[in-house]
From TrEMBL:
InterPro entries: Aminotransferase_I/II_large, Kynurenine-oxoglutarate_AT, PyrdxlP-dep_Trfase, PyrdxlP-dep_Trfase_major, PyrdxlP-dep_Trfase_small. One of its GO terms (molecular function) is transaminase activity. Residues 25-380 form the Aminotransferase class I/classII large domain. It holds the Pfam family Aminotran_1_2. NCBIfam families: PRK07777.1. Its cofactor is pyridoxal 5'-phosphate. The keyword Transferase applies. This is Pyridoxal phosphate-dependent aminotransferase. Keywords: Aminotransferase, Pyridoxal phosphate, Transferase. Its EC number is 2.6.1.-.
Length: 384
């Protein structure tokens, strides 16, 4: 393994899912739903396969039906207008969108600022691009992980090229507010930064939280690559259909990298996701309501079991602090948890450069059947 990748090893998700299989524990580690997405969308994929749509290489930017559906989604939801022919690119999940964006836009030695804790592929993709990552740590305050705007401002040096943002945020569940995004946008314009914004959990926001795309702020549309994914919104993580919306120049750059990574992907599934994006508003509302109830069930169960809980405003993850349980090392805690309580979780420290800052935090996923969450909560109570 070369020096760029040597520090990364195996992803925590593979390690923890393997541990769940080996011990028979309930897997609240890796974020994937245990119920597939809508029947109508699965049927659309079957129809595409049967009708021979997408069984051979689809067009490089993605099939026109899906690009149009993505553009219509951005317009209807956020009043953001993108030309499906020049400003939309379909990717092999958000993971490829992130990697291709960084490979396309970062010069070796450029600094890339990312909010820590960050989704694990960010660090590896920055490294593949030869960039230097500059983490800005989200700090817990008043029940939420908060971005310190002064710290963000201080992190921008003359070598800074790009800000890699994620809202709603995995693993903390923080949804950046309009006020925070306004300041981020001002900073990006002032310091002439490109922004890659990972918005894969855009539809998973609860209560009065609102997802506002960074691209909709003044001066941002032309400097922002926005990333979405069907995996999260429609519960088909195995299909690996993601997308990028940005200016023609940025989309063309990302596509230059993408064409040598996968060239194209997910042919028939692209047609199905085009139909999914056109589902009525009730689909999105019901999905959100279901997850909100699950968030509350798991958050309350974790509180009862003795954890400090950061109830998330978005995503399907809840971050906890294990300190009240007399624990301080999330890694050791998560490695022992399957034997101790029959549950698998993820130590947030893997998402930090400053591992000490993440040590006491542990993440649980709640995109699982209610009965599974109830059983997990019962098991976890044995820790109290
Ligand atoms: N970004 C974030 C923040 C994620 O949580 C995930 C999924 N775990 C991804 C990107 C990757 O999405 P996809 O499965 O579409 O590649
Ligand atoms: N995004 C999911 C998570 O954060 C997992 C994705 C993966 O396994 N690479 O848990």
């Amino acid at each position: 393994l070369n020096r760029r990748l040597a520090e990364f090893g195996t992803t925590i998700f593979a390690e923890m899912s393997a541990l769940a299989v080996k011990t028979g524990a309930i897997n609240l580690g890796q974020g994937f739903p245990d119920t597939d997405g809508p029947e109508a969308v699965r049927e659309a994929a079957v129809r595409a396969l049967r009708d021979g749509r997408g069984n051979q290489y689809p067009p490089g930017p993605g099939v026109p039906e899906l690009r149009t559906a993505i553009a219509e989604h951005q317009l209807a939801r956020y009043a953001l207008s993108y030309d499906p022919d020049r400003e939309v690119l379909v990717t092999a999940g958000a993971t490829e969108a992130i990697a291709a964006s960084l490979l396309a836009l970062v010069e070796p030695g450029d600094e890339v600022i990312a909010l820590e804790p960050y989704y694990d592929s960010y660090a590896a993709s920055i490294a593949l691009a030869g960039g230097t990552r500059v983490p800005v740590t989200l700090l817990p305050a008043e029940g939420r992980f908060r971005l310190d705007l002064d710290e963000l401002r201080d992190a921008v040096t003359d070598r800074a090229r790009l800000l890699l943002l994620n809202t709603p945020h995995n693993p903390t569940g923080t949804v950046l507010t309009r006020a925070e995004l306004t300041e981020i946008a001002k900073l990006a314009v002032e310091r002439d930064l490109l922004v890659v914004t990972d918005e894969v959990y855009e539809h998973l926001v609860f209560d009065d939280a609102e997802h506002i795309p960074l691209a909709s702020f003044p001066g941002m549309r032309e400097r922002t690559v926005s990333i979405g994914s069907a995996g999260k919104t429609f519960s088909f993580t195995g299909w690996k259909v993601g997308w990028v919306t940005a200016s023609p120049e940025l989309v063309s750059a990302v596509r230059s990298a993408k064409q040598f990574l996968t060239y194209v992907s997910s042919g028939p599934f692209q047609y199905a996701v085009a139909e999914a994006l056109a589902l009525p508003a009730s689909y999105f509302d019901d999905f959100r309501a279901d997850l909100r109830a699950k968030r509350d069930l798991l958050s309350e169960g974790l509180t009862a079991a003795g954890f400090d809980v950061y109830r998330p405003a978005g995503t399907y993850f809840v971050t906890t602090d294990i300190t009240p349980l007399g624990e301080s090392d999330g890694f050791a805690f998560c490695r022992a948890l399957p034997e101790r309580a029959g549950v698998v979780a993820i130590p947030n420290a893997v998402f930090y450069d400053h591992r000490d800052a993440g040590a006491p935090f542990v993440r649980f996923a709640f995109c699982k059947k209610t009965s599974v969450l109830e059983e997990a909560v019962t098991r976890l109570k044995s820790l109290a």
